[in-house]
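ARCHIVE CARD
SHELF: 3
SLOT: left
DATA:
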Amino acid sequence: MLALLLIATAADASGRAVTFPSLDGTTLSGELYEASSRPAPAVVLIHMLTRNKSDWDSIANRIQDAGMTALAIDLRGHGSSAGSPQALPDMVQDVRAAAEWLSSRPGVRPGSVGLVGASLGASLALLAAVELPFVRAIGLVSPSLDYRGLRTDTGLLKKLGARSLWLAASAEDPLALRTLRDFASEPSGPREQVVSSAAGHGATLLNADGDVVRALVDWLRRSLLS
């Protein structure tokens, strides 16, 4: 009995491969880290351009340990997902599909879903969130106001209403810092921001500064578990 319990606990502490369709039918891949106690809040993790879901492995485990489910996805044309890696506007559909797929699972608490993205993933998270009223929290790591034509101006924040927003950037990343300042000037819902002294952009920043990761997981816990 004890051996079986230990095996089950070890299995729960890691992710498992999943697939689901994007809104246009493109097959997407992900890694699902389910909370041990369900139903639980859930978070979609969205990687940078040319990267893949493995960027989030350690952070997904931290989210899982905090009592939440995490889904790290491969955007189209990245990792194990089908499609073109150049179709950036279509990737907004990928994030929407991931959030809808995750929120429909029986082990996910209704209305307690978050999106967290890095660099390109930050732009996609914000653009998708305005179309998804059930998304309660949006985390943006190294965001940009204009990522290769994907514009995320401050007007989008008004559409988020009272939903929680979390932003992080390196003090050595001037474009991301400017985005943080612009977003801070727009009065809307609750927001928190972290400026790190560590160098890095997106996943590189998260790997370089454990305090940023701790702040992210703490914010998710307060935003989704409360």
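SLOT: right
DATA:
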Amino acid sequence: MEISHAVAALGALAQQTRLRVFRLLITEGAKGLPATEIAARLGVRRNLMSAHLRALHQAGLSISRREGRQIYHAVDVAAVRHLLTFLVQDCCQGNADQCASLLNDILPLTGCKGEASMGQELLN
């Protein structure tokens, strides 16, 4: 990942409503949510929600798909993986044990289910 892409992604998340949208979409996974439901859940006006969703999309953090009359928005998991990898790729000066320890400490806090070794897979 180029640093300019990381800056764009982090910049998009540096706004309170967009960060809330991103966190909500993370919980929904690949199925995503329509903009109207996102707006309702977060108490944001629909016209403002469109701008926030556009910013997340332009930063490469979200994807959308049409289902009938609704457009569903979801987090782009591959993009999030690339961003997180970029942020920790030089972790602990390449000491695999320290990196694995850091990521394995974080993983349980995410609510993700699976092996603790998943943190190491992120770096590979």
